[in-house]
């Protein structure tokens, strides 16, 4: 058991002896050393004898040759994942006893379960001891032995195992002799088949290097990113045909020789250059993956075709006598050959679409048959098992087959109906039409059937089912033909090509987009576009449009011939006529006969349906996807280019003396410059830190600088002293550490000030102590900030604050940028993707972006090389090793693990094979990029030191390098001087002798020896001997002014540009002092009014004497004339506004327009990146920019007409704004904070009589009550509030007219509910008719029809008025003339002819007895009448028509009694009758126009006296004096004479207006609009019109 436990531990750490034959043991961490779960399970429960093994295995032995067991302290060298597991589970994995305890007892409470089990077993032993003896004890031992032990798979989560490379696949990748990136690709690199290389090379050339994108992509091919699987090529580039053999050679190296791209680019240049560079090779590497994907899909489809072919053959063989139907299409060898000839994924999709169409039913039948056979086989196996188990007496359970639902398409229905034979009579097969379309001429003539289509279709008509008529049969046949055409690959390819060439793009903003897309939005110049060809889209324009569309800001439409949609009204299609008319001629019979015309019509309909229903939607989707992919690839290229620029910058080189040309190699120091890094934060209260890094990047010391950000010229003496103290501390720190550079974080504008202070301090230090001045460099802090907040920083420096960690990373980036970036890429939390490389970076797929960036790291790391011994000694340097050619994270960590186990360094490259067990394939790939510092090893070392290991020369060409050294030195190859190492060492000291070598002759000799063309390789060897590992990156450059500006301000040319609107604050007035000669010629100005003198420059005007002005000049106190304004932008930039740019009018002094602290709006004129300032203008004309001088550049296809039309609509909407309401805080179930339209929708769902309170647009002291009288009839009632505590709450008293209510419930109970009950009673009455909302003409027609039916009876009807909600009419015909009278509803009943009737029956009974009575006339009253009201004075209503009656009065001169004229309800309206309009006058009384009619005598009221009235039989006269009435007769006159105009009684609420007959005058009645669009709330109403309540 002890051996099993120790074996378990060895499996966790990879130190088990069972792996010795396969690979060296690993003991560095659980991440690299995990065994497979299969191996663990095989060893569980077994016991082996022998001593326990340690994780170091047999690799460290003593003098006697026996292994020495070395135990490591827990946690010293443990990996982070192992430490995390120890913390989580509370285990010490370095303690075998601890792990053994867990393996035996488990992590939970298994010990308690074991005790319970033992008690149970012991109880049974006592009972059965006599019978079975010791069998129970043996059973207990077997149970204990069979208990499963805990493995690492029980301790770690699967995701943790994958992240730590513990899985079986990780182990296979480590031990397989193939580059790791070849194995971890989504489709691993495989050997080629015979003839595949030529085919793949041609495919890559045609589809990658010769295929142009649809949109304009400005970046060249060398900037094309790699690693985005499934992507199409893009960029304006093309390769010559001579690139095809070079592509073939590159593929041969990759697939058959397993050479990675950096190896080919460095050591096989002759085979790929000059056509291909390293970026092209990465593209080929990724294109190979797409080729393999296509090949794999084709192979799968070929297998499917063959299985279906076999199924069809078996089906025919089973029923040889059964005739095949006409639409049966067997799979032929031609179909399989056509499939194998597919070259692109689009073609493959086309073939599969056609296959699914023709063989869909056969596929379903084949799958169903296969499922049945499988179920039958399972049933037979089950029956056999049951029979064997029960000895023949068992009973098998039959499995019930679940019938799968299958959706039958219309095409299948057409097939089952036999319409395939009818479709074949259209004259062309889909293949023939596709060839006609491909060749763009009628290659195949259309065959003409001899019978008309209707007659042929008659034979397919079914008595029942789908096709029950000729029309449906023809529709089905046309549908089959259109689907077959749309599924034909040739047709799809032709239409796809035309669609992508002719496609146009239309863009328009949504309602939301019109508000949000301003000049600062990326789509500002593209929000209106009409008929823009998609080929003119550039860069990431389409991606920006798609993002705006996703945010609901834009609407896009892609199609061809978009302007042709209006012309094609015959078929109702849009954008189809042009191309449709072109291709319909290719499926057309050019003959003139009725038969041909009918078939041509069917053919045209089939072609049209194929385009409209199937092809165009498919092509739109494909084009949309392609344009989006190309736009994203543009963003991807931009990100990669930015990252490449970061990696391509070399670090700051150390200053070396002439005799110290290679100090690193000679003295064994680190490869980097010594750096002091300074980091500070945005909060000045947080202390800054500086740290010193040695030449290996290790932290030597650090200092805390709490006051370094304070100003050296601060007005506070305390701050100045604190600043000087920190500067002195910094000088002392630099004096002690002697760095070669100072790296300062470019955090904010304070970095400029701090850089100057530090530079001055270093100059002072040079004068004080003679310390050489070192440069102070601003460094981008983005990588350092990510590191300071990462788990890596907390693990490496747990006690350091974030700013100190940031300083450390900042210094290391300054020492070697590649090291810090590679460390980000190796982090587990995708820290590399946290870098901001492009504004649209977030739209990219993270896997694609990560892959592209990692490949850039691979390219640059192999250019620089990696010192593996440096990685062993410095943990922060291991980040570059996984990117070495041939390696990866698994192989790199495994390599370091072996070297740590051996506790030795790598002294030469050959030890990669002998000591580290690296396979030959991986060794060939990585050997040339592993740097070894040969000078670090002394001559006393027994190991052979190869000088060429410190160069880029590959071990396979060492002999050529030695030969070149011997020949250049002219050593005698037979003598002692011909020693290879000695010759190379000597030539490194005198490399100029290599220039005399004839390398071309050497290359010819090698070619004769069948080494191939090695000319380029020989020249590379010579260059490397001149300067081993010469820096290939660009020399270090300080940040440019533009880069500093962008870093310190956060502004880019896209965010800060000429014409940008900004907000700034005035911080001062800029003045210019006049020179002395100008002062001598000055002419002070005297104010004649005050007697004071004014300075002509600063305009100070409080000088009593002229001499005081001259003294003002002489003592220099005159600040000078103001020339402009100094402002501060929100981003901290300084702004300057010249006086001439302050206003369109003349400004003598800036103080006239602005003052300090004032916030103003301005436009940017110029940007000075070096001075961190901008010039501004705040003139009104510039801000308005009517001429568009500062507007964003518009797209060439910008739709100005649409933009101007929308602008005019917006301006018109601003001129006539909609009335808005203020939301109220009222808690009541019948109250809604909603508009009229919203309430109207709510009431539409409610019953009759329901009512809703809502806010009023009249103000916060009003409410509106909307009552549902009838369907589509809503009555709006104004409620006035009084006694409001605030404007949002409900008033204490509520007034409707002259009636007061306490709350909303009282209004509903006393006002609405009684009237609603009366309205329902009336509407449900038998004589009620809707009559189109009480339309008079409709009522008259109803009366006339009813009268004709029964002439002896007087017909009458009731109806509700839609135009005057709350009013009703009573229409009757006592004789030949129809009469319509109007009445209203009050809470007390129906008010009709000044009488209130409690029920409808009472009203009708009273009407029947009094219909002959004369209609009541107005009666004077002693109450005052209110003044005329306009429509916006709510509540002024008819005294009869409204439920609540209010008194009106008029004041007379001489103390006359106020009166109220009363008009009868049924009096014809004075506002409009018989085509004449009413007039109203307040001059001396009321005057109304007369109208033709029956015969009122004139009534005059003068001085309060009323005249008598007489009436004519059967007619009446009405009206009032004023404009003359129409034609003969007319009403008599009624005059009221008043010496004063009507006035409103104080405290009285106007509520009513004189009665008007609804439906027969121009206007509307109380509270009812004609419509929402013609609501007269804003126009003054006629004095006799009823004011409209708020809606």
Automatic annotation (TrEMBL):
Keywords (A to Z) from UniProt: Elongation factor, Nucleus, Protein biosynthesis, Transcription
Chain intervals with Basic residues compositional bias: 136-148
UniProt entry tagged with the keyword Protein biosynthesis: yes
Entry-linked PROSITE patterns: S1
Positions of transmembrane segments: none
GO cellular component: transcription elongation factor complex
Region (Disordered): 1-148, 216-243, 374-398, 1417-1494, 1524-1591
Low complexity bias locations: 1445-1457, 1473-1490
Lineage: superkingdom: Eukaryota
Comp. bias (Polar residues): 1539-1571
The S1 motif domain, residue ranges: 1124-1179
GO MF terms, alphabetically ordered: DNA binding; histone binding; nucleosome binding; translation elongation factor activity
UniProt subcellular location: Nucleus
Gene Ontology terms describing biological process: nucleosome organization; transcription elongation-coupled chromatin remodeling
One Pfam family of this chain: S1
Skewed-composition ranges (Acidic residues): 41-57, 107-132
Major subcellular site: nucleus
The protein's role, per its UniProt record: Histone H3-H4 chaperone that plays a role in maintenance of chromatin structure during RNA polymerase II transcription elongation.
Subunit structure: Interacts with glp-1 and lin-12.
Family (UniProt): Belongs to the SPT6 family.
Protein name per its UniProtKB record: Suppressor of Ty 6 homolog
Organism expressing this protein natively: Geodia barretti (Barrett's horny sponge)
């Amino acid at each position: 058991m002890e051996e099993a436990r120790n074996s378990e531990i060895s499996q966790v750490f990879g130190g088990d002896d069972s792996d010795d034959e396969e690979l060296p043991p690993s003991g560095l961490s659980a991440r690299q050393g995990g065994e497979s779960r299969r191996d663990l399970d095989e060893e569980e429960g077994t016991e082996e004898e022998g001593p326990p093994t340690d994780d170091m295995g047999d690799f460290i032995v003593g003098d006697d040759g026996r292994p020495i067991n070395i135990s490591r302290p827990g946690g010293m060298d443990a990996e982070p994942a192992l430490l995390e597991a120890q913390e989580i589970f509370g285990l010490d994995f370095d303690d075998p006893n601890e792990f053994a305890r867990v393996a035996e007892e488990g992590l939970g409470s298994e010990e308690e379960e074991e005790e319970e089990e033992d008690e149970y077993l012991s109880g049974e032993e006592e009972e059965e001891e006599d019978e079975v003896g010791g069998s129970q004890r043996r059973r207990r031992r077997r149970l204990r032995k069979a208990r499963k032990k805990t493995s690492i798979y029980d301790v770690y989560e699967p995701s943790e195992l994958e992240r730590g490379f513990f899985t079986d696949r990780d182990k296979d990748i480590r031990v397989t002799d193939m580059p790791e990136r070849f194995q971890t690709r989504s489709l691993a690199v495989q050997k080629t088949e015979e003839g595949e290389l030529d085919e793949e090379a041609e495919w890559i050339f045609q589809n990658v290097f010769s295929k142009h994108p649809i949109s304009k992509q400005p970046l060249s091919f060398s900037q094309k990113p790699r690693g985005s699987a499934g992507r199409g090529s893009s960029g304006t580039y093309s390769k010559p045909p001579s690139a095809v053999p070079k592509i073939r050679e590159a593929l041969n190296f990759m697939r058959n020789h397993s050479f990675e791209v950096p190896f080919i680019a460095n050591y096989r240049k002759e085979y790929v250059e000059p056509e291909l560079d390293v970026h092209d090779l990465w593209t080929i590497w990724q294109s190979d993956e797409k080729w393999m994907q296509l090949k794999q899909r084709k192979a799968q489809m070929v297998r499917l075709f063959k299985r279906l072919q076999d199924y069809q053959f078996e089906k025919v063989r089973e029923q040889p006598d059964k005739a095949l139907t006409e639409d049966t299409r067997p799979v032929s060898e031609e179909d399989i050959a056509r499939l194998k000839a597919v070259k692109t994924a689009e073609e493959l999709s086309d073939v599969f679409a056609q296959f699914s169409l023709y063989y869909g039913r056969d596929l379903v039948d084949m799958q169903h048959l296969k499922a049945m056979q499988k179920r039958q086989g399972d049933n037979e196996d089950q029956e056999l098992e049951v029979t064997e188990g029960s000895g023949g007496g068992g009973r098998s359970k039959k499995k019930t087959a679940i019938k799968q639902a299958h959706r039958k398409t219309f095409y299948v229905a057409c097939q089952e109906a036999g319409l395939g034979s009818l479709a074949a009579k259209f004259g062309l097969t889909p293949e023939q039409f596709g060839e006609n379309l491909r060749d763009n001429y009628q290659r195949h003539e259309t065959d003409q059937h001899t019978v008309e289509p209707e007659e042929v279709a008659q034979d397919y008509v079914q008595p029942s089912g789908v096709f029950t008529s000729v029309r449906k049969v023809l529709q089905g046949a046309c549908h089959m033909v259109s689907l077959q055409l749309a599924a034909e690959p040739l047709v799809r390819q032709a239409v796809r090509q035309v669609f992508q060439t002719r496609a146009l793009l239309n863009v328009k903003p949504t309602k939301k987009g019109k508000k949000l897309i301003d000049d600062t939005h990326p789509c500002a110049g593209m929000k209106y576009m009409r008929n823009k060809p998609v080929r003119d889209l550039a860069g990431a324009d389409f991606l920006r449009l798609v993002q705006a569309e996703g945010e609901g800001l834009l609407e896009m439409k892609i199609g061809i011939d978009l302007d042709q949609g209006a012309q094609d009204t015959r078929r109702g299609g849009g954008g189809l006529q042009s191309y449709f008319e072109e291709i319909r001629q290719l499926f057309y019979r050019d003959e003139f006969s009725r038969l041909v015309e009918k078939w041509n019509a069917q053919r045209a309909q089939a072609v049209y349906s194929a385009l409209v229903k199937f092809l165009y939607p498919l092509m739109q989707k494909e084009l949309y996807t392609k344009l989006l992919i190309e736009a994203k690839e543009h963003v991807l290229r931009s990100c990669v280019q930015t990252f490449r620029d970061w990696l391509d910058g070399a670090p700051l080189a150390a200053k070396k003396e002439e005799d110290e040309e290679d100090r690193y190699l000679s003295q064994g120091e680190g490869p980097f410059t010594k750096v002091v890094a300074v980091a500070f934060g945005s909060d000045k209260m947080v202390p800054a830190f500086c740290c010193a890094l040695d030449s290996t990047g290790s932290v030597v010391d650090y200092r805390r600088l709490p006051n370094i950000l304070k100003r050296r010229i601060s007005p506070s003496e305390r701050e100045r002293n604190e600043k000087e103290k920190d500067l002195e501390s910094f000088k002392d720190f630099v004096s002690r550490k002697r760095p070669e550079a100072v790296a300062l974080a470019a955090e904010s504008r304070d970095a400029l000030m701090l850089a100057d202070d530090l530079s001055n301090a270093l100059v002072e230090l040079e004068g004080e102590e003679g310390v050489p001045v070192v440069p102070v460099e601003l460094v981008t802090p983005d990588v350092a900030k990510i590191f300071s907040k990462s788990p890596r920083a907390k693990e490496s420096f747990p006690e350091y604050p974030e700013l100190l960690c940031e300083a450390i990373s900042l210094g290391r980036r300054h020492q070697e940028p590649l090291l810090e970036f590679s460390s980000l890429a190796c982090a587990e939390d995708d820290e590399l993707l946290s870098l901001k490389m492009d504004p649209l970076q977030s739209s990219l797929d993270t896997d694609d972006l990560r892959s592209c960036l990692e490949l850039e790291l691979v390219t640059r790391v192999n250019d620089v090389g990696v010192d593996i011994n440096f990685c062993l000694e410095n943990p922060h340097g291991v980040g570059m090793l996984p990117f070495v050619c041939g390696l990866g994270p698994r192989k790199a960590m495994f390599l370091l693990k072996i070297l740590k186990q051996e506790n030795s360094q790598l002294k030469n490259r050959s030890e990669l094979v002998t000591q580290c067990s690296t396979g030959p394939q991986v060794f060939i790939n990585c050997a040339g990029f592993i740097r070894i510092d040969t000078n670090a090893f002394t001559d006393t070392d027994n190991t052979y030191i190869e000088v060429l290991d410190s160069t880029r020369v590959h071990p396979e060409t060492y002999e050529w390098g030695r030969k070149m050294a011997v020949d250049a030195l002219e050593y005698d190859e037979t003598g002692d001087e011909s020693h290879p190492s000695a010759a190379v060492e000597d030539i490194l000291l005198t490399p100029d002798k290599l220039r005399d070598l004839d390398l071309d002759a050497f290359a010819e000799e090698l070619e004769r020896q069948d080494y191939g063309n090695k000319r380029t390789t020989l020249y590379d060897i010579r260059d490397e001997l001149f300067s081993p590992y010469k820096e290939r990156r660009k020399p270090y450059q300080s940040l440019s002014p533009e880069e500093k500006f962008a870093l310190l301000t956060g502004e880019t040319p896209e965010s800060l540009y000429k014409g940008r609107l900004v907000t700034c604050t005035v911080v001062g007035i800029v003045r210019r002092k006049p020179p002395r000669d100008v002062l001598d010629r000055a002419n002070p100005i005297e104010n004649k009014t005050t007697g004071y003198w004014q300075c002509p420059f600063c305009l100070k005007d409080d000088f009593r004497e002229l001499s005081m002005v001259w003294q003002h000049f002489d003592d220099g106190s005159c600040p000078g004339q103001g020339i402009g304004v100094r402002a501060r932008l929100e981003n901290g930039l300084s702004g300057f506004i010249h006086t001439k740019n302050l206003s369109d009018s003349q400004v003598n002094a800036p103080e006239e327009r602005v003052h300090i602290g004032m916030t103003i709006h301005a436009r940017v004129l110029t940007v000075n990146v070096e001075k961190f300032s901008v010039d501004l203008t705040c003139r009104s004309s510039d801000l308005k920019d009517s001429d568009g001088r500062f507007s964003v550049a518009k797209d060439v296809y910008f739709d100005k007409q649409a933009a101007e039309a929308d602008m005019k609509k917006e301006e018109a909407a601003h001129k006539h704004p909609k009335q808005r309401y203020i939301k109220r805080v009222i808690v009541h179930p019948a109250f809604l904070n909603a508009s009229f339209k919203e309430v109207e929708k709510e009431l539409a769902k409610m019953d009759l009589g329901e009512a809703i309170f809502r806010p009023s647009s009249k103000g916060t002291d009003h409410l509106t009550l909307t009552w549902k009288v009838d369907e589509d009839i809503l009555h709006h009632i104004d409620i006035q509030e009084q006694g409001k505590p605030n404007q949002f709450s409900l008033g204490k008293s509520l007034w409707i007219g002259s009636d007061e209510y306490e709350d909303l419930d009282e209004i509903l109970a006393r006002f609405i509910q009684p009237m609603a009950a009366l309205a329902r009673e009336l509407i449900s009455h038998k004589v009620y008719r809707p009559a189109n909302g009480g339309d008079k003409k409709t009522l008259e027609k109803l009366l006339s029809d009813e009268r004709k039916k029964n002439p002896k009876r007087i017909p009458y009807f009731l109806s509700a008025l839609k135009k005057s909600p709350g009013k009703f009419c009573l229409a009757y015909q006592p004789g030949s003339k129809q009469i319509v009278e109007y009445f209203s509803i009050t809470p007390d009943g129906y008010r009709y002819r000044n009488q209130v009737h409690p029920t409808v029956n009472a009203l009708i009974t009273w009407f029947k007895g009094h219909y002959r009575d004369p209609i009541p006339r107005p009666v004077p009253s002693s109450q005052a009448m209110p003044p005329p009201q306009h429509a916006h004075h709510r509540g002024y209503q008819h005294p009869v028509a409204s439920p609540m009656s209010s008194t009106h009065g008029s004041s007379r001169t001489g103390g006359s009694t106020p009166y109220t004229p009363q008009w009868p309800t049924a009096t014809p309206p004075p506002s409009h009758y018989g085509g004449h309009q009413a007039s109203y006058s307040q001059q001396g009384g009321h005057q109304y126009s007369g109208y033709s009619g029956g015969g009122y005598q004139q009534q005059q009221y003068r001085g309060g006296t009323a005249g008598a009235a007489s009436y004519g039989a059967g007619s009446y006269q009405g009206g009032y004096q004023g404009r003359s009435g129409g034609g003969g007769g007319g009403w008599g006159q009624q005059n009221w004479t008043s010496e004063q105009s009507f006035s409103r009684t104080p405290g009285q609420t106007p509520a009513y207006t004189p009665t008007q007959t609804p439906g027969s005058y121009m206007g509307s009645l109380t509270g009812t609009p004609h419509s929402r669009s013609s609501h007269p709330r804003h126009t003054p109403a006629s004095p006799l019109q009823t004011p409209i309540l708020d809606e």
